[in-house]
Amino acid sequence: MTAEVVNVAVSAARKVTTTVRLLHFTKHNVLFVVGCSLFLAIVLAAIFAPLIAPYDPTAINFLDKLMPPGRQHLMGANDLGQDIFSQVLYGARTSLMVGVVVISLAMAIGVPIGLVAGYFGGHLDTALMRISDVFLAFPPLLLPIAITAALGTGLFNAMMALAVSWFPWYSRIVRGAVMRINNELYISAARAMGVGSVRIMLRHALPNSLTPIIVQGSMDFGYAILAAASLSFIGIGAQPPTPEWGLMAALSRTRFIDNWWTVTFPGLAIFVTVLAVNLVGDGIRDTLDPKQQ
Amino acid sequence: MGVATTAPTGQPGGVFVPQAGNAVMTDNLLEIRDLHVEFPGLERTVKAVRGCTLFVAKGEVMGLVGESGSGKSITALACLGLVPPPGRVTGSIRLDGHEVVGALDADNERLRGGVAAMIFQNPGKALNPFFTIGRQLTDVIVNVRRIQQAAARGIAIAALTEVRIADPDRAMHKYPHQLSGGQLQRVMIAMALACKPKLVIADEPTTALDVTIQAQVIVLLRDLAREHGLTVLFITHDLGVVGSVCDRLAVMYAGRVMESGSVDGLLASPAHPYTASLLRAVPMLGRGRTELMQIPGTVPNMAAPPPGCAFHPRCPSAGPSCASEVPAMRETNGGRSIACHHPLPAPAGSSEDVGTLAS
Fold first, then answer.
1. What is the pLDDT of residue A289?
2. Of A229, A289, B331, B344, which has the fewest beta carbons less than 10 angstroms from its beta carbon?
3. Does the pLDDT value for residue B21 go beyond 70?
4. Where are the alpha helices (DSSP H) in chain B?
5. ipTM over 0.90 threshold
6. pTM (two decimals)
7. From the CA of B239, how many Å to the nearest CA of chain A?
């Protein structure tokens, strides 16, 4: 009886501490809350774009050509009379998709390589890391440009190219984390109990490197969006009529002086999204990995 | 295995059979013959084990004692094929009929856990701090015994009960940091037992524990070994412990076995000067405030071990031959073996010290 009461009390106390900790954290991290709210708003906008958007983002209407922001077009219209507000909404879908795909793909390539390299070490490690270094040796946007030029332009190829040029960062993080625990006694003990290499990598090494991976992923998310927008801007990423912020800015860049709204709103969308994602990333890093601040 | 010659071969640590000269292979669960382990470096090669020969019969508790750096732990790791790179292993280790040295890691992996399990010195570090005791136990059991998760859980709880952990159900949900060192070592023993191994290698299982807990863990290990008919290779540098646990004893120094034999015989009348010195160095309660005995000199640098008998620079009875010639392992009476040019006279030699220790 008493033990039960104590147990309940203990678990209640534990629950309170978690909530209190979270409240305490958010109270002292206004920026994290701002970032989260912004990001949530963007995600909702992306999900409900068909419901919110007043127009079809690809519909051409020459009567509304270059109409300034107003009642009819919230953010104005471009030279084809397309509604910029609708395009920005649909563009959120593209950008978020790009972020998720690029980061997951980079992780999918980088994490296994890092695990194997860190766990086995020796020549295998050297070989894998030198291959990764090749990808790191190019300036961050040059390699994607080269890859897309080779594979052909398009959003899909741009995402592949970004992921390929990004995976070495994940390899390095995971490799470091695995090497740190490689000499731990519990790894030797697991091996002495007949646990195989693959199992040790998945059961012991991977969970140990999860925190830095999540932190790095959340930080990279914004940069992936920015990089994809950049590729689209220079014309080798998304192709019209895909609603993509970088592409929108690129198509209207000559009109910036006379029709400021055609460039400003897509640019603002990129800015706000990347800012929000980075604020969230910072917050995640501060909670999960306080040492890295 | 055939009958090995016991005559001095001139070769260091030559093959010999410590017990009956015509022992059959199946009697020994673990046979280490002329084991060498070297760690090559850029400037010097450390010879951690230099011709260790050791036989452990089925069902016996074999003590392996020696100072730090004598090669005990590396020998134990070699038995499981776990010498870390860049270690080079030569010689022969037969574990339950399987040759470990030179075998593929995948083949040795099948021996680990199921045939031979190991208990480590520092239980606090031998468990992954990220996972609960229960998850780690069931993980290992599922892996070694190839059974369902639920069945493994039952076995884990049974094993925890057997090592006398209070409230095993709750312990299953605890993380390693929530348990004490003694409890963790019990968990490690439970993990080893749950795999139903034939051989348990306990590498200084009590060194990191309090003295009172040490006694409990040792008694537990001894009882479990008896109940399950386990063969145990018990590695320790605590001579106070071996008498109460082990059936036989091997004394290691500088990568070689110096002397081996039954525990009672070895403790009562050590024939090797090193064994005798070790025994004299054991501090005893109730002997008043006498000065602690120590062995003069230090453990040799294993990158450049002394020629001849490695112990000769510190040995009180060393002669000229000791510095030049490695004494071969030879059998004396009563299943004892010794590697020494000038063994101490058998009974009632240096009576009083030894007499008190044997009790």
1. 65
2. A289
3. no
4. 72-79, 105-111, 133-145, 149-162, 168-172, 181-194, 211-228, 239-245, 263-268, 273-280, 351-358
5. no
6. 0.74
7. 25
Nearest CA-CA distance, residue A195 and chain B, Å: 7
Tens digits of residue pLDDT in B259-286: 999 998 888 888 899 998 888 887 777 7
The answer to whether the bond into B176 is cis (omega within 30° of 0) is no
A-chain CB neighbours of B192 within 8 Å are 193
Contacts (Cβ under 8 Å, ≥6 apart) of B260: B18, B54, B248, B249, B250, B251, B266, B336, B337, B338
CA separation for the pair B327, A151 (Å, rounded): 73
pLDDT surpassing 80 at residue B257: yes
Closest CA–CA distance from residue A194 to any residue of chain B (Å):
4
pLDDT, tens only, B72-82 = 889 999 999 88
Q: Which residue of B lies nearest to A199 if distances are taken between CA atoms? A: B143
Which of A122, A193, A199 has its CB closest to that of B195? A193
Q: Are A255 and A77 in contact (CB under 8 A)?
A: no
Low-confidence ranges of chain A (pLDDT < 50): 1
- Sheet order of strands, B336-338 included: B116-119, B199-203, B231-236, B61-65, B248-253, B256-262, B336-338, B330-332
Q: Is the minimum CB–CB distance between A182 and chain B shorter than 8 Å?
A: no
The answer to whether the CB atoms of B113 and A194 lie below 8 A apart is: yes
Instruction: Judge whether A191 is closer than 8 Å to chain B, CB to CB.
Output: yes
